[in-house]
Every structure is written in structure tokens, then in C-alpha cells.
Design a protein that fits this description.
The protein is about 0% helix and about 40% strand. The strands form 15 sheets. Strands 22, 23, 24, 25, 26 and 32 form a six-stranded antiparallel β-sheet that branches. It is globular and about 85 Å long. The termini are far apart. The relative contact order is 0.07.
């Protein structure tokens, strides 16, 4: 028979939640001795005791006063202006109708809060959830569920529904958008268990009171049996500890017995595998107790005796890298906190800390650095028409669900949080996130999104904006609130056939750029001819022989900057023939509306965000969101007969969800260049841009003919780009691809430098490379052998340098040899440019009989260093 806890026993009423973890960024060297984190007490104590808490999407903490037999009072903890929770302020929120203790709690994608059931109180007999709206500080009831729920568990599904258990063997889905219930399903017994969300979105549980396990598969809305645990984790009173997804993709489950277990997912609906984890020291266990996955990858565990509920809480960190436990002092400095583990709670906070509730509130600051695989990456921030903002990026939800307890308390934090830090005062603010695209964990390179609204009264100015995924922040991006972005600089205009291509430098905080044009100097006016989302634009459909004058202005939510300096160009025709086509689409940026095709049909497209990071100089995202499908032919006219052209085909898979579901052939001028091409397989997944490059010679009619032939489920092409072939290569030495510079290639010897994050002054160079090229480099004795050139042809070679290590002349010198001829002797970057200033050295060279140019860097003092290599004809 299950032993029932009495909430008022042993420790009296439930005491306040304890804040735990401010994240210390002290790096731990591999193999070093364990160094625990630190505890800090709260300056402002809460007005009442709490049973559990969760994180609102505006960074505030919402706490439930469960009381001895269930309460209905709620409080909010708001961090102070410096972002400190332990110095934050408390306020009372609206009360629920039902009283609850040990119930289901979930934060919804719209920012509201869902609670249902209760082992104690009136909530356990009410077949309705209550929904809290933070904007109105009010509660409302859901429609009636198919069952009542006691100490039941709930979690978010990929479809945006809540999966709710009745604490026995029945689940149902609640749709918060329609306020309806569906998919009532019998399954394994969920009493006293925890649910763990895996990287494939399936949900792992230990079936009640034994060693059997099951998984819920969201795509089929069904339960499947999984492998058995190697030892029994259920212990005293049928209780169980929590399960945690680790940074290595495995699951660590803490037993109420002294046993632990490790689960390796299969990645499919087939069973995974279990192995025994380390024994919990001193025969302790988690007889209903919290634990928190921390930003450093360790799990902070609250433990107690395994023979009962006990009256004291011990603390340990589990390290998945060493598969071992290390003891941590209690908040009071002794070995234990004087309350039973089941009365305590934990919560991962956005500053990398863990909120702990025991005999008081404390902040635990873990040692070490954030897990690198858990660092989010922001790709874009744009303004919505309703005044909110839209953020896209990778890893927005973190790599785990955060702190866990089990069926009695849920405090998952696997959703986006946006923090703003004033660049002038250092004050910290949290935006309110909503409309998340996903609550999946460990999402890798998949592009996710969230909307956010700014806090009321946010001062005007410049902010460092970060997205926080379960306690781990991204690198910051500049966010301007009420501040017009700076005027763009560096505008260039390059003439083509009936078109002019423009580019300019990025204006910090700009979300778009207005393009202004005139046919007389200074006549651009104030009405833009177009808007660009990036720092380049091609104006097509122009009259050859006419000189056009251009200016650009940067735009953000606050307004439009002044216009840039003027640039002009005179297009001329007949020989360039460059064209970019948005297949199955209207005009997008420099891509013209679909043209020059026969056959096929425009696809319905997608509104999902596209990951364009895998393509160098990608097309606008809207190009990849549409396409022409089916067997079709593009005949590109107006080219120079016999001339060579670069052909780039742009693809993106947004309709099928696996490899082998769409294949097709592609031929260019009668030569098959792609056979059984599979976009999904080539790109590595859905919603990922892909490009395939070829060269082709225009036929006697000045045409290039491209044929797409369906093999399985409709050929699909998003964009076609044709431009005159050029013998140009740009290499980002010791670096990944940067703009038009390809990732480091064609080298032997040397090593990639560690680089710098410092700003580089590129104004010292005409037509500079991207700043990131100068921030990295290849160091030491090395040789670059540039191939694929025309034997005997003369090329311009430009070498890009920047000194970011040494701050005086004479500390780094080296020689440079070009095709066997020494062109630089005892070259000193600092002496030529100073520190953090770009520098370029240009030469001419003739490709040898093998079509190669060889560039050698020979150290004289302290490692040769080159940032970029540019070879052009």
C-alpha cells in the first residue's frame, strides 16, 4: 500500500522557496578536483511560505502558497534593476478558486500559466484546469477535462497542447487556443512518476512501482513500451526521484532508493537502453525531492534518507562527465538543511542560478562554465506589425527542461527568455516572450522563434539583448529602443547590364534599409524606391547608358536614419547577362519574379523560418520559402554566346520530413549535373537552405537551359542565379566562412589562431574584408596553394592582415614568398598598421603550368599571421 505524505508533519507548514543559483563563470579544467558552487541568502524574504514555483516568460518568478492542506494564494518575485533575484521584490497575485498542493503546472506558449489537480485541496476533485493571464492578473477555468487529477503530471507537446495525466493510467490533451480537450488515451500508470522530454520530443516515464518504462510518441499520440531499468528506483511509499536529460543526450534518473540509472535513447520509437548509474552516497535517496540541471551540465540534487521522508536535506552535484556524486554544503554552511526533501523546491533562473526553497530562500551559484552545446545563437530580431518583436535563432529552449521534481511539482523552463541590459547604465530588464515556435529541447541547428514584448516604461536607448535557454545566455546583439540607427556608410554602386548592384556597411540596430534613386546628383528625394533587409540590393530594369544616383537610410522600430553619402553607376548592356530568379515567387530583393520557365507550377510555400547559415552569401529567406515544383525547364536568355557563366541553384525542403521522400534530376545545357537529388538529405534536414553550383557556357543563341525532372514527388527549385564566371577566390584564413570569403582551405602547415573579439578598424583599407576575417587568421609557417586558375594568366593577389596579439613593433615579423619570389621581408603588421587596424598588401602573380599560385608565410619572430587571401583576375 502506498504511504501518503502528510504535509504538516515533521517540519510543520511548508517553508519559503529558496532561490538558488547565480552562475559563476569560472572555468573548470578537465580532470581538476571538484569545486562546489556557493550559496547566498535572500535580502528580501517572501511574505509567506511556498510549495512550488515557476518562471514566467517576463523573467519573474510565480510562487504557490500550498499551505498545510492546499492553498490558493500566489506571489510574484521580480528581480531588481540589476537583475538580482535575491534582492528582488515580492508582490501578491490574484488567487485561484481551487486550493491546491502537489499539482500540475505548465507555462504555455502564449505566456499564460496552466494549473490542474492537486493531491490536497479542492483542485483534486475539480475536472477543470485554471489558467492565469499575467497581463490581466486574473484566473479563468478551462473547459471540463475527461477526468479529475490529483498529484498528476503535465507537459507541453510539439503541437502546442498540454499533455495531462490523471495520475493513474489515462492522459488527454488540452488545447489552450481552443479551450478544448482531445486524445483521451489509456496507457501506463503515471502515479508518482516523472516525465522526461527527449531530444526527439518523445516523453520517457518510469511506469509506476516497478522497473518497466514507457515513452509517449507525440507524432502518433500513443504510448510504447521501452526497456526496463537495471534496478528498482521506486522506494519508500512508492515515491521516486526526478529524471534529467543530460548534455550528452542521455537521461539520468535519481531513485528514491540509493540507485540511479542512465538511459540512452534510440532516437526512434524503438526501445532505448538502460545501464546502472552511480550509487547515491551514504544510502541516501530522493523520496520525492527536487533536482536541477545547471548551466555547467551538473545536476544539483536534494537528497535525504531512503527509508522514509526524513527531516533533513543533503546536497550533492552529479557530474555526467565523471559519472559521480560530490557533496555540497547546505545553505547554512552545515552538511544538511533542516527540512525534509519533499518540502523543498528548485527552479532554474535566467541568470544561470537555481532557486531553492527549504528552510529559507537562497541562491546557489555553480562553479564552472556554461555547457557550450547549450549556448543559444540569435539569428535575427525584427519588429512585428503589432509593435511586438520576432526573434529567430538556434538553441532557444536550452538542452534540458531545467529543474525537476516529478508528479508533485513541475517547474520546467525549456522556453525562450529575452533579457535586455542597458549599454549606458547596466540596468537589466526582461521582455515578455510569447508565441514560441517550439518547446523542444536539444534542438541543434534547427531554427526556432519567439515573439516578445518590451517591458512597460523601458527607457529609450541602446541595449545588449540576449536570449536565455534554460539559464544559458546567447551572445548579445544590439537592440535600439526609440533610437534611430546610425546613417549607413560605405555605399558602393556597381553597374551591370540594365542593373546596378549596391552594398554598404551595417548600421547597428537596423532592421531594414530604404533605397533612394535619382538620375541627377542630389535628386534622390525622401520616397524610397525599395526596401532591403540586408546590406546589399540590386536595382534591375534600368536603362543602359543612363547614370543613376543612389543613397540609403537605415530603419528600425524608432524611425529612419539620415541618408548616406551618394554613389552612382552607369549600367551598360549586352555582355553581363546576370540574373537572379525567385522561382514560383514574386520579386524578392535582387531576385526578379519567376520568369523564363515552362512547365511545373508554383508551390504553396511555407511561412516557417529558414536556416540560411549553411549557405555562403545566401538568397533572401523568402526565396527559399517558395519554389517551382514538378518537371519544368528554365531557358535563361540574353547571355553572350560562348561565354562562361556561374550557375547557382537554390533549394530548401519545406514539404517533406525525411530523406528519400523527394528526388529529381537536374541538367544544364543537356548535361545531367544532379541525379536523384534529395534536398532534405543534401541540406541535412527540413527548413535548411542549400545551394548547388555549376559552370555553363551559353549556347549559340545566348541561352543556358536548365531542366528539372521529377523522379519522386515533384522536383522543387527555389532560386536560380546566373552571372558571368570569374576567376576569384577569397579565403578566410584560420576561420569559418565569412560573407564571400570561404572557410580556410588550400593550406598546409601552421595552425588556426585563437583570434580576438575586439573591434577592428577597417577604415584603413579600401574595400575591406568582413571584420571577422581580420579577427582570426592562420599562424606559423604555412603555405597556401591556390588551384583551379588558368595556366599563364595574371592574377591580383591581396593579403589581409591585422595585429591583435602584440602592441608594439618588432614583436612579430615574417617573410612572404609568392610563386618562389619573396615579396615581403621581415614584414611587421603592427609597424605597418598598429594594433586592431586592418592592413592589406597587394601583388600580381602568374599562375604556373598547373594553374596554381603558391603563397608561403615564413616566421622570423613569433609566428607569421595572415587573416585573408584574395585572388582575382
Amino acid at each position: 500500500m502506498r504511504i501518503v505524505r502528510v504535509p504538516s508533519r515533521a517540519c510543520g507548514i511548508l517553508l519559503p522557496l529558496e532561490l538558488t543559483i547565480v552562475f559563476a563563470l569560472n572555468a573548470i579544467l578537465a580532470g581538476s578536483a571538484f569545486a562546489s558552487g556557493t550559496w547566498s541568502g535572500f535580502t528580501n524574504q517572501p511574505p509567506a511560505g511556498f510549495s512550488s514555483c515557476l518562471l514566467l516568460t517576463d523573467g519573474a518568478v510565480m510562487c504557490a502558497n500550498g499551505g498545510g492542506s492546499g492553498g490558493n494564494t500566489w506571489y510574484k518575485l521580480t528581480p531588481d534593476i540589476h537583475g538580482s533575484y535575491r534582492n528582488g521584490t515580492w508582490s501578491q497575485l490574484a488567487s485561484t478558486v481551487d486550493t491546491r498542493l502537489y499539482d500540475a503546472m505548465v507555462v504555455l506558449p502564449n505566456g499564460n500559466v496552466y494549473v490542474m489537480g492537486g493531491e490536497y485541496g479542492t483542485g483534486g476533485s475539480d475536472a477543470r484546469a485554471e489558467i492565469y493571464n499575467p497581463l490581466t492578473n486574473s484566473w479563468s477555468f478551462s473547459s471540463t477535462a475527461p477526468f479529475t487529477a490529483t498529484d498528476a503530471i503535465a507537459t507541453m507537446l510539439p503541437n502546442g497542447n498540454v499533455l495531462q495525466s490523471n495520475s493513474q493510467s489515462t492522459t488527454a490533451q488540452y488545447n489552450p487556443n481552443t479551450n478544448t480537450w482531445s486524445n483521451t488515451l489509456g496507457g501506463p500508470d503515471t502515479n508518482e512518476t516523472d516525465w522526461v522530454k527527449l531530444a526527439d520530443d518523445s516523453i520517457l516515464e518510469l511506469v509506476s512501482y516497478g522497473q518497466n518504462t514507457s515513452r509517449y510518441i507525440p507524432s502518433t499520440a500513443s504510448w510504447v513500451s521501452d526497456a526496463s531499468t537495471p534496478a528498482d528506483l521506486y522506494g519508500f511509499g512508492g515515491e521516486l526521484g526526478s529524471g534529467h536529460l543530460l548534455p550528452n543526450g542521455h537521461v539520468f534518473w535519481i531513485g528514491a532508493t540509493p540507485n540511479t540509472a542512465l538511459y540512452t535513447p534510440s532516437g526512434t520509437s524503438s526501445p532505448g537502453s538502460w545501464t546502472a548509474g552511480p550509487a547515491i552516497p551514504n544510502s541516501l535517496g530522493a523520496v520525492d525531492a527536487p533536482a536541477a540541471m545547471m548551466a555547467n551540465g551538473n545536476v544539483l540534487c536534494a537528497l535525504g534518507v531512503s527509508t522514509g521522508f526524513g527531516s533533513a536535506t543533503d546536497f550533492y552535484e552529479y557530474d555526467y562527465l565523471t559519472n559521480s556524486f560530490s557533496e555540497v554544503n547546505a545553505p547554512n554552511g552545515s552538511s544538511t538543511d533542516g527540512t525534509a526533501p519533499y518540502t523543498t523546491s528548485m527552479l532554474d533562473l535566467p541568470d544561470g542560478t537555481v532557486l531553492y526553497q527549504g528552510t529559507g530562500l537562497y541562491v546557489y551559484t555553480p562553479n564552472g562554465s556554461p555547457v557550450s552545446s547549450g549556448v543559444p545563437v540569435i539569428q535575427s530580431v525584427s519588429k512585428n506589425s503589432n509593435g511586438s518583436y520576432h526573434l529567430t535563432g538556434t538553441g532557444l529552449n536550452g538542452i534540458s527542461e531545467g529543474a525537476k521534481y516529478g508528479d508533485d511539482k513541475q517547474m520546467n523552463t525549456n522556453y525562450p527568455i529575452v533579457r535586455l541590459t542597458s549599454n549606458s547604465t547596466g540596468d537589466v530588464y526582461y521582455a515578455r516572450t510569447l508565441n514560441w515556435s517550439s518547446t523542444s529541447v536539444m534542438t541543434g541547428s534547427k531554427v526556432l522563434s519567439t515573439d516578445f514584448t518590451l517591458p512597460s516604461g523601458l527607457p529609450l536607448g541602446s541595449y545588449a539583448l540576449v536570449e536565455v535557454g534554460d539559464g544559458i545566455p546567447s551572445a548579445s546583439v544590439t537592440f535600439l529602443n526609440g533610437v534611430v540607427p546610425p546613417t549607413p556608410t560605405g555605399l558602393t554602386a556597381t553597374a551591370g547590364n540594365a542593373q546596378v548592384a549596391m552594398s554598404w556597411t551595417n548600421s547597428s540596430g537596423a532592421t531594414s534599409y530604404n533605397i533612394y534613386r535619382a538620375t541627377a546628383p542630389g535628386g534622390e528625394g525622401t520616397t524610397p524606391i525599395a526596401t532591403a533587409s540586408s546590406t546589399s540590393y540590386t536595382n534591375t530594369g534600368l536603362t543602359n547608358g543612363t547614370t543613376y544616383y543612389y543613397k540609403v537610410a537605415a530603419v528600425d522600430a524608432s524611425g529612419t536614419s539620415g541618408q548616406s553619402a551618394e554613389a552612382s553607376a552607369t549600367p551598360s548592356g549586352g555582355t553581363t547577362g546576370a540574373i537572379s530568379i525567385a522561382c514560383g515567387n514574386s520579386a524578392v530583393g535582387s531576385f526578379v519574379a519567376d520568369t523564363d520557365f515552362s512547365g511545373g507550377a508554383a508551390s504553396s510555400g511555407t511561412t516557417s523560418a529558414i536556416n540560411t547559415s549553411e549557405v555562403v552569401s545566401p538568397a533572401p529567406a523568402a526565396v527559399y520559402q517558395h519554389g517551382r515544383k514538378g518537371t519544368c525547364t528554365y531557358t535563361i536568355p540574353g547571355l553572350t554566346a560562348g561565354a562562361s557563366y556561374d550557375v547557382r541553384l537554390d533549394f530548401c525542403e519545406y514539404a517533406v520530413t525525411g530523406a528519400g521522400q523527394r528526388t529529381f534530376d537536374v541538367s544544364v545545357n543537356g548535361t545531367q549535373v544532379l541525379t536523384n537529388f534529395d534536398i532534405y538529405a543534401a541540406a541535412g534536414g527540413e527548413f535548411i537552405a542549400n545551394a548547388q553550383n555549376f559552370t555553363a557556357t551559353a549556347n549559340s543563341s545566348g541561352q543556358i537551359v536548365i531542366v528539372f525532372t521529377t523522379v519522386l514527388n515533384n522536383a522543387l527549385v527555389a532560386g536560380i542565379e546566373v552571372k558571368p564566371a570569374t576567376s576569384v577566390i577569397k579565403i578566410a584564413a584560420g576561420n569559418s566562412a565569412q560573407g564571400t570569403f570561404v572557410a580556410d582551405t588550400d593550406f598546409s602547415g601552421g595552425a588556426a589562431s585563437s583570434g580576438t573579439a575586439s573591434t577592428i578598424n577597417t577604415s584603413t583599407v579600401t574595400d575591406p574584408a568582413p571584420m571577422a576575417v581580420y579577427q582570426h587568421g592562420r599562424k606559423g609557417n604555412c603555405t597556401y596553394t591556390i588551384g583551379g586558375l588558368t595556366a599563364g594568366a595574371t592574377y591580383t593577389v591581396r593579403l589581409d592582415f591585422c595585429e591583435y596579439i602584440y602592441n608594439a613593433a618588432g614583436q612579430r615579423t615574417f617573410n612572404v614568398i609568392l610563386n618562389g619570389t619573396q615579396v615581403l621581408t621581415n614584414y611587421d603588421i603592427f609597424a605597418n598598421a598598429g594594433e586592431f587596424n586592418a592592413n592589406a598588401q597587394g601583388f600580381t602573380a602568374t599562375a604556373n603550368s598547373s594553374g596554381q599560385i603558391t603563397i608561403q608565410f615564413v616566421t622570423v619572430i613569433n609566428d607569421a599571421l595572415v587573416g585573408g587571401i584574395e585572388v582575382s583576375k
